Amino acid sequence: MLGTPYDFFIQMHLTERCNLHCRHCYQTRKVPEMSLEEVTQAIENIKKATDSWVTEYAMEMSPSFHFTGGEPFFRDDLFAILETARERGFATALMSNGTLITPEIAQRLKKEQVSDVQVSLEGMKYVHDRIRGDGSFQKALRGIANLVANDVSTSVNMTLSRLNIDEVEGVVDLAGEMGVNMVTFSRLVSCGRGKELGEAMLTPEELAALYGRLHKVRGKVALSSLDPLYTVSGIAGKIPQADFPVGGCAAGVFGITIAADGGIMPCRRMDLTIGNIKTDSFRQLWAESPVLWALRERSSYHDKCGDCRYWSVCRGCRAVALAYARADGVEDYLGADPQCPYFKSNG
Ligand code: SF4
Ligand code: SF4
Predict the structure, then answer these.
(1) Is the shortest distance between the CB of 227 and ligand 1 below 6 Å?
(2) In a 3-state reduction of DSSP, which class is residue 76?
(3) What is the rounded CA–CA span in Å between residue 227 and residue 53?
(4) Is the shortest distance between the CB of 191 and ligand 2 below 6 Å?
(5) Which side of the chain, N or C, has fewer Cβ within a 10 Å radius?
(6) Which ligand gives the minimal distance to the CA of 320?
(7) Contact at 8 Å (CB) between 68 and 14?
(8) What pTM, to 2 d.p., does this model score?
(9) Considering every ligand atom, which ligand is closest to the CA of 187?
(10) How far apart are CA 314 and CA 221, in angstroms?
């Protein structure tokens, strides 16, 4: 139903420990992290689900684990976890602040066949250090250089807000010079410590101007984003129509998040726990969770997104919708994405 192969990903947070204290970080709670044995059981729990989709629905799958934190390199057993996932047929990727990646670690990542290491850069030195802390820019660049020198596929991710929208071109140039494979970006979600950055959120007009500009950026490295609004901003011609999701927001459709304590969320930025991988069957939860079904069904959406011609390829960022609703004291993840400038009525 979702295209072939089905690129299903699990974003797994292995720890909430970190050596930085970023202004927009969505981790604020300290929770007991899963042991290696529990992480292994979690991987096997998810494998039972993906295997069953292959046999029951004859789906072609390319499932992957994206391990992150906190800072994933705080886990002493990180390489054992990567091996466990790989041995069970999952591609593996890492999301990191880059500051702890030594040449030796980069060599081990190469050996472990990690498909991509994403390092966060929020801009050039001044802006990055303002958001992520003094000295973090140089350390992140050192980590990136170590990855590239060891031929590990490396991407750089920016979290875009008013604090750094003028930095994109500089980061793309720098990434190109360093030999990075891709620059990706996501939108700031006003949750966790990012709540304090409400004034940095882009208006729909600012977002339209920014995304228009980003489509014209040309550098040695490609620019890409999983933000559904970026996809919509680049759609030319006929708008794909379907009554089920064929692209757009991954939450509960193409991806799921497991928190460090095993909590299951549609997306880490949504902060909406629907179960725990230590106690729930993932296969059953994926098939039965009312929250996940609401995310997949057009009839549960309201306001603009429910009535929009882009619904099947977009649905907005559900985390942004929820964060704005919560700021108004409402628990609603199915309303309009308040940063969207692209609504087109279905009528
Ligand atoms: S209204 Fe919603 S579905 Fe339509 S383009 Fe905007 S965010 Fe996407
Ligand atoms: S809720 Fe937002 S951040 Fe999460 S998968 Fe959807 S678009 Fe991406």
Answers:
(1) no
(2) coil
(3) 26
(4) no
(5) C
(6) 2
(7) yes
(8) 0.93
(9) 2
(10) 25
